[in-house]
Amino acid sequence: MDRKKFIKSTCAFGLGVTGIALLLESCKKTQNTTTPQGPTVNFQLNLNQPANAALNSTGGTVSANGVLVINVGGAYTAIAQSCTHNGCKVGYNSSGNNFICPCHNGVFDINGNVTSGPPPTPLKKYVVTKNAAVLTIAG
Ligand code: FES
Questions:
Q1: Which of 6, 60, 63, 83 has CB atoms 3.0–4.6 Å from 101's, for a disulfide?
Q2: Which CATH class is domain 42-138?
Q3: What is the domain partition of the chain in residue ranges?
Q4: For the segment 34-51, what is each residue's pLDDT rounded down to a tens digit?
């Protein structure tokens, strides 16, 4: 094989391999776009305990077991706290009623859906039930 043919065939092979790798990567991203990510939990928070007192006020948050629990206007929401991009802890933004990741400005709505930034998948949302002064967070 002369030099010209060798270079031609090597380039063709390289382009083919690159194309397949890009195709597989795009398929991988498509598959993950709707599956919320977060730990499986089932725990309780007593609102009478000082450590959970923030939850007695609108906009108050408590982080426990990888879950961020929020008092949203007297109702409770719980969301996985680890960003689905690179795992930084998201924080609740009461003025926008959403979650912001400080690492690369990923933004999630109150239900955990990605609204902007690099996160590839939603945050998992948990069921919160209240019985007297005790919240149960499960999902
Ligand atoms: S780690 Fe959250 S946006 Fe990158």
A1: 83
A2: mainly beta
A3: 1-31, 42-138
A4: 789 999 999 999 999 999
